[in-house]
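Q: Can I see a sequence and its folded structure?
A: Here is a first one.
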Amino acid sequence: MKDSVSLENLIIEDLLRIYPYSMEFFNINGLPIDDVNNTVKDYITSLPYVFLEDMGLNQEDLLKRFRAFMSRMKDIGEERTFSIRDITILGGRGKNEKLEEIELKISMGEIICIVGPTGSGKSRLLADIEWMAQRDTPTKRQILIDGSVPPRDWRFSVEHRLVAQLSQNMNFVMDICVGDFIKLHAQSRMIDDTEDKTREIIFHANELSGERFDLNTPLTSLSGGQSRALMVADTAFLSTSPIVLIDEIENAGIHRNKALELLVGQNKIVLIATHDPLLALMGNKRIVIKNGGIQKVIETTSDEKRCLIRLTEIDNVLIRYREILRNGDLLDDNM
């Protein structure tokens, strides 16, 4: 991208073609474009004094505002490339002050399951990762990014947010349709072709959801499962966060296996807090939490992978039965 001073010497037609988001500058400032063959600078210079006075600006102020807008949009475009290779969890201590003798490295594309009784400390571990803890949380854990202590300002930066969360309850309050919601998110991420990206996300969301929906479906009319499916697909394709946290996806009413494949396929670290044996065995490793601390880390064994095959077969039968019942048909002993 050219510097913002050079951009003001582009003719408006070229500016809008190369940087479609620049149209927002004219829209938010109420600037009508009568001739796209003018340069931005000539256009602003030609604006009547009375018009600028109503805005409380002069020509130079408006040019500065244009430069600042384009510079900020450039920064946003660069921020969307935020990525990491791995994170490392250095152990702290549990509720009983027992030391966690652990150094766990998690790489992009891995699925890590977190298991343990309710209240054992699963959420605290996830919070430590999200906060990039540096021995300054109750657990005294430390999180390294690519083997190093992350810059302090990352902890307070929206652009460097490490974790995207998919909670059990997804309730929308925006009174817009699904297509507009995705387009708004895509535009905020500086995606060039928002139409294609919107169609791609809805396609994959419908692959996860039992009941299909389309671009024009109001957000507020989506069921719990549809909402969760939409947010999984949206997170996979639009979220810049390299880590996705999923809380008890077994209760979401969506295709769990496909959801995980979609997220991992976008080269994200997936952390799943779960009580489901099928999901627990789908991970590369599982972290066992007890009494607020990490008790052990278990790599999925070959025997467990064979168990996973049998569990998947059972799960597929249950999915088939569920679809039969949803469609109002009857089950029989020969199925």
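Q: Show me another, different protein.
A: A second, unrelated one:
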Amino acid sequence: MKKLSRRSFLGNSTFLSVAGLLGFAPLAGSGKRAQKGDFVHHVYFWLKNPGSKEDKAKLIEGLNTLKAIKQIQLARIGEPAPTNRDVIEKGYDVSWLLFFDNLEDEEIYQKHPVHLKFVENYSHLWDKVIVYDSVDV
């Protein structure tokens, strides 16, 4: 095994870190590299009954049904992380993070029967929803 100097090691580590930040690394778990025009859809849900484990579980169950929509490249369901900084919003109960190849695929998702059924069957659980949509530049 070749021995690296500390300087070489740090240089390589810095390059790999920056490369990941610039989108050279694939989207986690998708095998696809981020590229200009990729569409990110991030939804935050506030439950009508904050702290209700049952309602949270039902909402997560519903979100999992949406994963059947083939236009979704990557989906993540989350909850507030145990981080503490003034800029962090922690008032929501569940987040839904989606990646699409483009805006058109996200629009198909919005009109998809599975998505419409999700809204019909689960919207009674939430009090507030905020969506952040963005495209890679």
